Predict the structure.
Amino acid sequence: MTGIPGFSDPEVAAAAEHLPVLEDTLQALGVSEDEIRQAQRLHTLELLVIERMVLPAKARYDLAEIAAATGTSADEIVQLWRALGFPMPAAGEKVFTDLDVQMLRTVAALLETGMVKPDLAMQMSRVIGSSLARVASAQIDAIAIADEDDGLTGGDFANSAATLLPAMPMIMDFVWRRHLQVAARRRILREGDPDHVPGREVVGFADLVGFTALSQQISSQELAQIVNRFEAIAYDTVGSFDGRVVKMIGDEVMFVVDDDRRALEIGLTLAELYEADPSLSAVRVGLAAGPVLEREGDIYGPVVNLAARIVGIAFPGSVVVDEAVHAIAADDPTLTWKPLRSRRLKDIGRVALWTVRRADADEEVPEPPARPRSRRGRAGRSAATRSRPGGAVPSSG
Protein backbone atom coordinates (compact mmCIF):
# COMPACT_ATOMS: atom_id res chain seq x y z
CA MET A 1 0.00 0.00 0.00
CA THR A 2 2.68 2.46 0.98
CA GLY A 3 4.53 1.63 -2.22
CA ILE A 4 2.04 3.52 -4.40
CA PRO A 5 3.81 6.67 -5.66
CA GLY A 6 2.46 9.89 -4.23
CA PHE A 7 0.66 8.35 -1.25
CA SER A 8 1.83 7.95 2.31
CA ASP A 9 -1.42 7.49 4.25
CA PRO A 10 -2.36 3.76 4.18
CA GLU A 11 -6.10 4.50 3.89
CA VAL A 12 -5.56 6.92 1.03
CA ALA A 13 -3.29 4.43 -0.68
CA ALA A 14 -5.86 1.67 -0.28
CA ALA A 15 -8.50 3.87 -1.89
CA ALA A 16 -6.10 4.73 -4.70
CA GLU A 17 -5.76 1.05 -5.61
CA HIS A 18 -9.43 1.05 -6.59
CA LEU A 19 -9.30 4.18 -8.75
CA PRO A 20 -8.59 2.19 -11.92
CA VAL A 21 -11.96 0.41 -11.51
CA LEU A 22 -13.81 3.71 -11.63
CA GLU A 23 -11.54 5.00 -14.38
CA ASP A 24 -12.28 1.94 -16.51
CA THR A 25 -16.00 2.45 -15.94
CA LEU A 26 -15.82 6.09 -16.96
CA GLN A 27 -13.70 5.36 -20.01
CA ALA A 28 -16.25 2.76 -21.11
CA LEU A 29 -18.89 5.48 -20.80
CA GLY A 30 -16.90 7.73 -23.13
CA VAL A 31 -15.58 10.18 -20.53
CA SER A 32 -12.41 12.00 -21.55
CA GLU A 33 -9.12 11.59 -19.72
CA ASP A 34 -9.16 15.28 -18.76
CA GLU A 35 -12.54 14.94 -17.05
CA ILE A 36 -11.38 11.82 -15.20
CA ARG A 37 -8.19 13.52 -13.98
CA GLN A 38 -10.19 16.54 -12.77
CA ALA A 39 -12.63 14.28 -10.93
CA GLN A 40 -9.69 12.55 -9.24
CA ARG A 41 -8.35 15.88 -8.01
CA LEU A 42 -11.78 16.86 -6.68
CA HIS A 43 -12.49 13.38 -5.21
CA THR A 44 -15.72 13.17 -7.22
CA LEU A 45 -15.09 10.08 -9.35
CA GLU A 46 -18.14 8.31 -7.86
CA LEU A 47 -20.40 11.25 -8.67
CA LEU A 48 -19.03 11.38 -12.20
CA VAL A 49 -19.88 7.69 -12.61
CA ILE A 50 -23.45 8.40 -11.55
CA GLU A 51 -23.74 11.43 -13.80
CA ARG A 52 -22.72 9.43 -16.87
CA MET A 53 -24.40 6.12 -15.98
CA VAL A 54 -27.81 7.58 -15.26
CA LEU A 55 -27.97 9.53 -18.52
CA PRO A 56 -25.48 7.95 -20.91
CA ALA A 57 -26.95 9.49 -24.09
CA LYS A 58 -24.66 12.08 -25.63
CA ALA A 59 -25.70 15.74 -25.50
CA ARG A 60 -26.27 16.59 -29.17
CA TYR A 61 -28.69 19.53 -29.27
CA ASP A 62 -28.77 23.13 -28.16
CA LEU A 63 -32.10 24.90 -27.54
CA ALA A 64 -32.65 25.93 -31.15
CA GLU A 65 -31.78 22.47 -32.46
CA ILE A 66 -34.06 20.58 -30.08
CA ALA A 67 -36.89 22.99 -30.88
CA ALA A 68 -36.46 22.14 -34.57
CA ALA A 69 -36.20 18.40 -33.85
CA THR A 70 -39.39 18.29 -31.79
CA GLY A 71 -41.52 20.91 -33.49
CA THR A 72 -41.91 22.66 -30.14
CA SER A 73 -41.11 26.34 -29.79
CA ALA A 74 -38.02 27.35 -27.84
CA ASP A 75 -40.20 29.38 -25.44
CA GLU A 76 -42.36 26.34 -24.65
CA ILE A 77 -39.29 24.19 -24.03
CA VAL A 78 -37.82 26.84 -21.71
CA GLN A 79 -41.10 27.03 -19.78
CA LEU A 80 -41.30 23.26 -19.38
CA TRP A 81 -37.59 22.94 -18.51
CA ARG A 82 -37.90 25.55 -15.77
CA ALA A 83 -41.08 23.95 -14.41
CA LEU A 84 -39.20 20.66 -14.09
CA GLY A 85 -36.51 22.48 -12.12
CA PHE A 86 -33.62 22.10 -14.57
CA PRO A 87 -31.06 24.88 -15.06
CA MET A 88 -31.29 26.63 -18.40
CA PRO A 89 -28.33 26.19 -20.75
CA ALA A 90 -26.37 29.07 -22.21
CA ALA A 91 -27.05 30.09 -25.80
CA GLY A 92 -25.62 27.50 -28.17
CA GLU A 93 -24.76 25.05 -25.35
CA LYS A 94 -25.49 21.45 -26.30
CA VAL A 95 -27.15 19.87 -23.28
CA PHE A 96 -30.15 18.07 -24.78
CA THR A 97 -30.04 14.39 -25.75
CA ASP A 98 -32.12 12.07 -27.90
CA LEU A 99 -33.98 11.10 -24.71
CA ASP A 100 -34.98 14.74 -24.25
CA VAL A 101 -36.23 14.80 -27.84
CA GLN A 102 -38.37 11.73 -27.13
CA MET A 103 -39.76 13.22 -23.93
CA LEU A 104 -40.65 16.56 -25.54
CA ARG A 105 -42.34 14.83 -28.45
CA THR A 106 -44.42 12.80 -26.00
CA VAL A 107 -45.50 15.94 -24.13
CA ALA A 108 -46.32 17.70 -27.40
CA ALA A 109 -48.44 14.75 -28.55
CA LEU A 110 -50.41 14.77 -25.28
CA LEU A 111 -51.07 18.48 -25.60
CA GLU A 112 -52.23 18.07 -29.20
CA THR A 113 -54.89 15.54 -28.15
CA GLY A 114 -56.47 18.14 -25.88
CA MET A 115 -56.62 15.62 -23.02
CA VAL A 116 -53.93 17.57 -21.19
CA LYS A 117 -54.24 21.34 -21.03
CA PRO A 118 -51.07 23.49 -21.05
CA ASP A 119 -51.72 24.88 -17.55
CA LEU A 120 -52.18 21.37 -16.15
CA ALA A 121 -49.02 20.21 -17.91
CA MET A 122 -47.02 23.00 -16.26
CA GLN A 123 -48.57 22.27 -12.86
CA MET A 124 -47.78 18.57 -13.06
CA SER A 125 -44.27 19.37 -14.32
CA ARG A 126 -43.63 21.45 -11.19
CA VAL A 127 -44.90 18.66 -8.93
CA ILE A 128 -42.91 15.95 -10.71
CA GLY A 129 -39.78 18.07 -10.93
CA SER A 130 -39.75 19.15 -7.29
CA SER A 131 -40.56 15.66 -6.02
CA LEU A 132 -37.92 13.89 -8.07
CA ALA A 133 -35.35 16.59 -7.33
CA ARG A 134 -35.76 15.74 -3.66
CA VAL A 135 -35.41 12.02 -4.40
CA ALA A 136 -32.23 12.62 -6.40
CA SER A 137 -30.73 14.86 -3.73
CA ALA A 138 -31.47 12.28 -1.02
CA GLN A 139 -29.81 9.55 -3.09
CA ILE A 140 -26.65 11.60 -3.58
CA ASP A 141 -26.56 12.34 0.16
CA ALA A 142 -27.05 8.63 0.90
CA ILE A 143 -24.11 7.73 -1.32
CA ALA A 144 -21.87 10.18 0.52
CA ILE A 145 -22.97 8.80 3.90
CA ALA A 146 -22.48 5.19 2.80
CA ASP A 147 -19.02 6.01 1.49
CA GLU A 148 -18.07 7.53 4.87
CA ASP A 149 -19.64 4.82 7.02
CA ASP A 150 -18.96 1.68 4.99
CA GLY A 151 -15.72 2.57 3.23
CA LEU A 152 -16.95 1.50 -0.21
CA THR A 153 -14.18 0.70 -2.65
CA GLY A 154 -14.21 1.84 -6.25
CA GLY A 155 -15.16 -1.65 -7.41
CA ASP A 156 -17.98 -1.90 -4.84
CA PHE A 157 -19.33 1.44 -5.91
CA ALA A 158 -19.16 0.72 -9.65
CA ASN A 159 -20.92 -2.63 -9.17
CA SER A 160 -23.58 -1.11 -6.91
CA ALA A 161 -24.24 1.75 -9.31
CA ALA A 162 -24.55 -0.62 -12.25
CA THR A 163 -27.14 -2.67 -10.33
CA LEU A 164 -29.10 0.00 -8.49
CA LEU A 165 -29.43 2.74 -11.11
CA PRO A 166 -31.40 0.60 -13.59
CA ALA A 167 -33.63 -0.65 -10.76
CA MET A 168 -34.65 2.81 -9.53
CA PRO A 169 -37.07 3.65 -12.39
CA MET A 170 -38.94 0.39 -11.76
CA ILE A 171 -39.12 1.06 -8.02
CA MET A 172 -40.33 4.63 -8.52
CA ASP A 173 -42.91 3.50 -11.08
CA PHE A 174 -44.28 0.97 -8.58
CA VAL A 175 -44.39 3.50 -5.73
CA TRP A 176 -46.12 6.07 -7.97
CA ARG A 177 -48.78 3.53 -8.99
CA ARG A 178 -49.39 2.62 -5.35
CA HIS A 179 -49.71 6.26 -4.32
CA LEU A 180 -52.09 6.92 -7.21
CA GLN A 181 -54.22 3.98 -6.13
CA VAL A 182 -54.28 5.17 -2.51
CA ALA A 183 -55.19 8.72 -3.54
CA ALA A 184 -58.04 7.46 -5.73
CA ARG A 185 -59.35 5.14 -3.00
CA ARG A 186 -59.18 7.93 -0.42
CA ARG A 187 -61.19 10.23 -2.68
CA ILE A 188 -63.78 7.47 -3.33
CA LEU A 189 -64.26 6.84 0.39
CA ARG A 190 -64.42 10.56 1.10
CA GLU A 191 -67.13 11.16 -1.50
CA GLY A 192 -69.10 8.17 -0.22
CA ASP A 193 -69.15 9.45 3.37
CA PRO A 194 -72.51 11.19 4.01
CA ASP A 195 -70.98 13.25 6.82
CA HIS A 196 -68.06 14.48 4.76
CA VAL A 197 -67.95 18.21 4.03
CA PRO A 198 -66.27 18.78 0.65
CA GLY A 199 -62.88 20.42 1.04
CA ARG A 200 -62.83 20.05 4.84
CA GLU A 201 -59.63 18.65 6.31
CA VAL A 202 -57.79 18.67 9.62
CA VAL A 203 -54.37 20.29 9.32
CA GLY A 204 -51.74 19.56 11.92
CA PHE A 205 -48.26 20.80 12.81
CA ALA A 206 -45.81 19.10 15.18
CA ASP A 207 -42.85 21.24 16.20
CA LEU A 208 -39.69 19.75 17.74
CA VAL A 209 -38.78 21.86 20.77
CA GLY A 210 -35.22 23.14 21.17
CA PHE A 211 -34.06 22.11 17.71
CA THR A 212 -32.48 25.42 16.71
CA ALA A 213 -30.17 25.57 19.72
CA LEU A 214 -29.38 21.87 19.54
CA SER A 215 -28.40 22.08 15.86
CA GLN A 216 -25.71 24.62 16.75
CA GLN A 217 -24.12 22.36 19.36
CA ILE A 218 -23.73 19.02 17.58
CA SER A 219 -21.97 17.69 14.50
CA SER A 220 -23.60 17.46 11.08
CA GLN A 221 -23.68 13.66 11.35
CA GLU A 222 -25.42 13.79 14.74
CA LEU A 223 -27.85 16.36 13.38
CA ALA A 224 -28.64 14.11 10.42
CA GLN A 225 -29.39 11.23 12.78
CA ILE A 226 -31.78 13.38 14.80
CA VAL A 227 -33.54 14.65 11.67
CA ASN A 228 -33.84 11.09 10.34
CA ARG A 229 -35.34 9.89 13.61
CA PHE A 230 -37.73 12.85 13.76
CA GLU A 231 -38.92 12.23 10.20
CA ALA A 232 -39.19 8.45 10.67
CA ILE A 233 -41.55 8.83 13.64
CA ALA A 234 -43.61 11.46 11.83
CA TYR A 235 -44.09 9.47 8.63
CA ASP A 236 -44.78 6.21 10.46
CA THR A 237 -47.33 7.75 12.82
CA VAL A 238 -49.19 9.89 10.30
CA GLY A 239 -49.37 7.02 7.81
CA SER A 240 -50.58 4.60 10.48
CA PHE A 241 -53.78 6.64 10.87
CA ASP A 242 -54.39 7.26 7.15
CA GLY A 243 -53.03 10.77 7.22
CA ARG A 244 -50.59 12.34 4.80
CA VAL A 245 -47.36 14.14 5.56
CA VAL A 246 -47.58 17.30 3.45
CA LYS A 247 -44.00 18.37 4.08
CA MET A 248 -41.19 18.60 6.58
CA ILE A 249 -40.26 22.18 7.43
CA GLY A 250 -36.95 21.99 9.26
CA ASP A 251 -37.89 21.03 12.81
CA GLU A 252 -41.60 20.81 12.00
CA VAL A 253 -43.88 18.33 10.26
CA MET A 254 -47.09 19.41 8.55
CA PHE A 255 -49.75 16.76 8.01
CA VAL A 256 -53.35 16.53 6.86
CA VAL A 257 -56.13 14.00 7.49
CA ASP A 258 -59.81 13.98 6.58
CA ASP A 259 -61.09 12.65 9.91
CA ASP A 260 -61.01 14.61 13.18
CA ARG A 261 -60.68 11.62 15.48
CA ARG A 262 -57.80 10.18 13.49
CA ALA A 263 -56.18 13.61 13.53
CA LEU A 264 -56.40 13.65 17.32
CA GLU A 265 -54.91 10.17 17.49
CA ILE A 266 -52.03 11.31 15.29
CA GLY A 267 -51.39 14.35 17.47
CA LEU A 268 -51.52 12.46 20.76
CA THR A 269 -49.37 9.60 19.46
CA LEU A 270 -46.75 11.98 18.10
CA ALA A 271 -46.55 13.76 21.47
CA GLU A 272 -46.18 10.43 23.28
CA LEU A 273 -43.59 8.93 20.94
CA TYR A 274 -41.34 11.97 20.85
CA GLU A 275 -41.63 12.30 24.63
CA ALA A 276 -40.52 8.69 25.05
CA ASP A 277 -37.63 8.83 22.59
CA PRO A 278 -34.34 9.47 24.44
CA SER A 279 -32.69 10.93 21.34
CA LEU A 280 -35.31 13.65 20.81
CA SER A 281 -36.92 16.45 22.72
CA ALA A 282 -40.67 16.88 23.13
CA VAL A 283 -42.96 18.24 20.44
CA ARG A 284 -45.91 20.57 20.60
CA VAL A 285 -48.84 19.81 18.32
CA GLY A 286 -51.49 22.12 16.86
CA LEU A 287 -54.64 21.01 15.01
CA ALA A 288 -57.26 23.02 13.14
CA ALA A 289 -60.11 21.94 10.87
CA GLY A 290 -61.91 23.59 7.98
CA PRO A 291 -61.91 24.06 4.21
CA VAL A 292 -58.53 23.87 2.49
CA LEU A 293 -57.20 24.15 -1.02
CA GLU A 294 -55.03 21.24 -2.15
CA ARG A 295 -52.69 22.17 -4.98
CA GLU A 296 -49.54 20.51 -6.26
CA GLY A 297 -49.40 18.29 -3.19
CA ASP A 298 -49.49 21.22 -0.79
CA ILE A 299 -52.28 22.63 1.40
CA TYR A 300 -53.41 26.26 1.51
CA GLY A 301 -56.02 28.33 3.33
CA PRO A 302 -56.84 30.05 6.63
CA VAL A 303 -56.95 26.69 8.43
CA VAL A 304 -53.27 26.14 7.64
CA ASN A 305 -52.38 29.51 9.12
CA LEU A 306 -54.50 28.80 12.20
CA ALA A 307 -52.86 25.43 12.85
CA ALA A 308 -49.42 27.02 12.44
CA ARG A 309 -50.27 29.75 14.95
CA ILE A 310 -51.71 27.22 17.41
CA VAL A 311 -48.57 25.09 17.50
CA GLY A 312 -46.56 28.24 18.18
CA ILE A 313 -48.32 28.84 21.53
CA ALA A 314 -48.66 25.19 22.62
CA PHE A 315 -46.68 23.92 25.59
CA PRO A 316 -44.05 21.18 24.96
CA GLY A 317 -45.70 17.78 25.04
CA SER A 318 -49.21 19.17 24.57
CA VAL A 319 -51.81 18.93 21.81
CA VAL A 320 -53.84 22.10 21.27
CA VAL A 321 -56.83 22.21 18.90
CA ASP A 322 -59.35 24.72 17.63
CA GLU A 323 -63.08 24.69 18.37
CA ALA A 324 -63.92 22.88 15.11
CA VAL A 325 -61.90 19.81 16.12
CA HIS A 326 -63.12 19.96 19.72
CA ALA A 327 -66.76 20.06 18.62
CA ILE A 328 -66.45 16.77 16.73
CA ALA A 329 -64.82 14.76 19.52
CA ALA A 330 -65.96 16.58 22.67
CA ASP A 331 -68.05 13.59 23.82
CA ASP A 332 -65.30 11.02 23.35
CA PRO A 333 -64.93 9.31 26.77
CA THR A 334 -61.31 8.37 26.04
CA LEU A 335 -60.28 12.03 25.88
CA THR A 336 -60.00 14.79 28.45
CA TRP A 337 -60.45 18.41 27.37
CA LYS A 338 -59.43 21.66 28.97
CA PRO A 339 -60.42 25.06 27.55
CA LEU A 340 -57.66 27.64 27.28
CA ARG A 341 -58.07 31.32 27.88
CA SER A 342 -59.22 33.02 24.71
CA ARG A 343 -56.19 33.89 22.60
CA ARG A 344 -55.59 36.56 20.02
CA LEU A 345 -53.44 34.99 17.34
CA LYS A 346 -51.40 37.10 14.95
CA ASP A 347 -53.21 37.92 11.69
CA ILE A 348 -56.15 35.76 12.78
CA GLY A 349 -57.83 37.32 15.80
CA ARG A 350 -59.28 35.93 18.99
CA VAL A 351 -60.03 32.20 18.89
CA ALA A 352 -61.21 29.52 21.32
CA LEU A 353 -58.66 26.78 21.91
CA TRP A 354 -58.56 23.51 23.81
CA THR A 355 -55.86 21.17 25.08
CA VAL A 356 -56.60 17.48 24.75
CA ARG A 357 -55.04 14.43 26.37
CA ARG A 358 -55.99 10.84 26.90
CA ALA A 359 -58.40 10.26 29.77
CA ASP A 360 -56.01 7.75 31.36
CA ALA A 361 -52.96 10.05 31.13
CA ASP A 362 -51.03 10.35 34.39
CA GLU A 363 -50.35 14.06 34.28
CA GLU A 364 -52.07 17.12 32.93
CA VAL A 365 -50.09 19.29 30.53
CA PRO A 366 -50.12 22.89 31.77
CA GLU A 367 -51.72 25.73 29.86
CA PRO A 368 -49.25 27.77 27.81
CA PRO A 369 -48.57 31.38 28.86
CA ALA A 370 -51.17 33.90 27.74
CA ARG A 371 -48.65 36.30 26.22
CA PRO A 372 -46.25 35.11 23.50
CA ARG A 373 -42.68 34.94 24.72
CA SER A 374 -39.49 35.58 22.78
CA ARG A 375 -38.21 32.61 20.82
CA ARG A 376 -35.27 30.94 22.54
CA GLY A 377 -33.95 27.46 22.09
CA ARG A 378 -32.96 24.93 24.66
CA ALA A 379 -30.88 21.99 23.54
CA GLY A 380 -31.89 18.38 23.95
CA ARG A 381 -34.18 17.18 26.68
CA SER A 382 -33.67 20.15 28.98
CA ALA A 383 -35.72 20.83 32.07
CA ALA A 384 -37.53 23.61 30.26
CA THR A 385 -38.81 21.30 27.55
CA ARG A 386 -39.82 18.71 30.12
CA SER A 387 -41.40 20.94 32.76
CA ARG A 388 -44.83 20.17 34.14
CA PRO A 389 -47.26 22.31 36.19
CA GLY A 390 -45.36 25.11 37.85
CA GLY A 391 -42.40 24.63 35.52
CA ALA A 392 -40.65 27.00 33.16
CA VAL A 393 -42.11 28.71 30.14
CA PRO A 394 -41.53 26.49 27.07
CA SER A 395 -38.68 27.33 24.80
CA SER A 396 -39.22 27.53 21.07
CA GLY A 397 -37.58 25.49 18.37
Notes: Residues 1-19, 371-397 have pLDDT under 50 and may be disordered. Residues 63-151 form a domain with the Multidrug-efflux Transporter Regulator; Chain: A; Domain 2 fold (CATH 1.10.1660). The CA atoms of residues 248 and 254 lie 6 Å apart.
